[in-house]
Amino acid sequence: MRAEAWLFAGVAGFFLVTDLAYAWFSGQEPAGTAALTVSFVMSSLMSFFFAMNYRRRGLRPEDRRDADVAERAGPLDFFPPHSAYPAMTALGVALLALGVVYGLWLFIIAFGILAGGILGMTFQFVARGE
Questions:
Q1: Which phi-psi region, left, alpha or beta, contains residue 58 (left: φ > 0; alpha: ψ -120 to 50)?
Q2: What is the SS3 assignment for 64-121?
Q3: Dihedrals φ, ψ of 17, to 5°?
Q4: Which residues of 26-54 are buried (b: 16+ CB within 10 A; e: fewer)?
Q5: pLDDT band at 127 (very low <50, low <70, confident <90, very high)
Q6: What radius of gyration, in Å, describes the C-alpha atoms of the chain?
Q7: Percentage of the chain exceeding pLDDT 70
Q8: What is the pLDDT of residue 109?
Q9: Percentage of the chain surpassing pLDDT 90?
Q10: 96, 107 in Cβ contact below 8 A?
């Protein structure tokens, strides 16, 4: 992750120089200056994230020239077999959009359905603390 940290540090440096030059030559025009400042902050955040991950975990197999493909093999992630919550969330979003058109009563009902779907997807596979 060291290479990624340096890459995003370079991007952050570019946005910082561009931001300062834009602010100087544009006469403090706020929209472009704000956009470039946010770009600088976000790329700095990514650089910091990658640097901290490298410090904690060290080199990954793809960072070493002598690594084998089998070193990175293994289970990728947990994929749930079935769930009703994505359909519930989609129904909530659709009703929420209709609630904007037809009234506050439908919007409030749809918000409850949407909140239930999001919370269900979030906590569906959380251990119950038994």
A1: left
A2: CCCCCHHHHCCCCCCCCCCCCHHHHHHHHHHHHHHHHHHCHHHHHHHHHHHHHHHHHH
A3: -65, -45
A4: eeeeeeebeebbebbeebbebbeebbeeb
A5: low
A6: 23
A7: 97
A8: 97
A9: 63
A10: yes
Residue type at 54 in one-letter notation:
Y
User: How would DSSP label each residue in 11-78?
Assistant: HHHHHHHHHHHHHHHTTS-HHHHHHHHHHHHHHHHHHHHHHHHHHHH---GGG-TT--GGGG-S----
Q: Which tens digits make up the pLDDT trace of 70-119?
A: 887 877 777 777 889 999 999 999 999 999 999 999 999 999 999 999 99
Return d(Cα 29, Cα 110) in angstroms, integer.
Answer: 41
Q: What is the pTM of this model?
A: 0.55
What's the CA gap between 17 and 90, in Å, rounded?
43
* Structure tokens, 6: 């340096």
Asked whether 40 and 46 are in contact (CB, 8 A), the reply is no
| Residues across the chain | 130
